[in-house]
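Table S2 (text version). Query chain:
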Amino acid sequence: MKLSKEFKVGLFMVIAITLLYFGFNFLKGIDFFSTSKKYYVAFQNIDKLTESNQVYLNGYSVGRVSDIHIQQRRNRVIVELDIDSDIILTDSSVALLNGELLGGRFIQLSIGSGGKALKAKDTLRSEVAKGVMDFAEPVATNLQTTLKNLNILLEGLAHNSNQLDTMFLRLQTTPMLINNTLRTANTNIDELGMSLKSVSGNLNERLAELKPTLANFKTLSDSLKVIQLNGTLVKVQETLTKLNQTLSRLSDGDNTMSKLLTEDSLYVNLNKLLLSIDSLANHFNQNPKHFMAPLGKSQKKIERDLNKQKE
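Corresponding structure-token output:
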């Protein structure tokens, strides 16, 4: 039996459409060869969640968003989840609405520990993860504060730059003032040098005039020294002459001093006197009664006492 071309084209179109349907659903995450269960989740805001977005458990895809419809009176959105029947959910399980940095949204399951197992078409608890803007809000606040501080700093720098400009303008006039000061100082130095030169010349003239006077003072001083020395020598000479005369008189022997120096009679008489004084002292020590009696003793009594002492 031959098939017509029309039948072949029609059969090809049916097969192509069927493959296209299954391929499109497969790309959406629908697996026709596995069983699944439907669960519901209620959100206040799904943040651009769409059908066919993936449902993940521990980072592994376990289902997809099969349907979304809004309940306007209750101000909420009901999301239908098509989850593999192998996944057992409990009343402590949570469906977390999360998103990627580039804007894609997905549902992340958190099974939880314990609890009663849910049946198909039961409702899961819902939560919404913090987005990038939620984390960025404190950063934006800090950034705003930083920008304000930066503006204050820039204003301070602008004020300081104005002060620096004023300072540089003043510094531009400083070299002129320094040059004028140096010119004045050079003029004063020249005048001072001329004055010193004049004073030096006058001093040299005065010194030249003083040289003869100094020479006269030197001559006068030498003369005074010679006069004083001559007078001293004359006095010494006179003293020596007198000393020689005194010594010659002592050597002549015609005066008392020469006799004391040359004769021994005075020495002999002095020795006799000393011996008599010594004998008198001894007699006084031995016989004080001879001297201490009221009228003393006679010569005879004294001789008699002496003879008794000798016997």
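Notes on Table S2: The first helix runs from residue 5 to 27. The first strand starts at residue 36 and ends at 43.
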